[in-house]
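Bug #77: duplicate submission created two jobs. Keeping one. Sequence:
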Amino acid sequence: DYIFIGGGNAGLVAAVRVAQLCPTHSVLVLEAGKDVSTNPDIRIPGSRFVPPNLGNPEVDWSFFSAPQTNADGRSVSLPR
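Kept job's structure:
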C-alpha cells in the first residue's frame, strides 16, 4: 500500500503510475484543503489569478513574500 502526500502534478502522476504497476496495492493521495472542484472560479484556467479571486482563501493560499528592500519594504503577493 502507498500514500502520497500532495496531489500536485508530480504527486498525481506518481500515484497513477504506482496504481498501474501494482494493481493489487491500494494508493491514497492526501491533499490540503477542502474539495473545491465544483467552484467555477477554479474550473477556468488562470481565473484564480484575476480579481476578485486573488487573496480569496477558497482558491488562493494568500502567500506573501518577506518585506522587499527594493520595493520600499513592501511585501509582494505570491498567488498559488
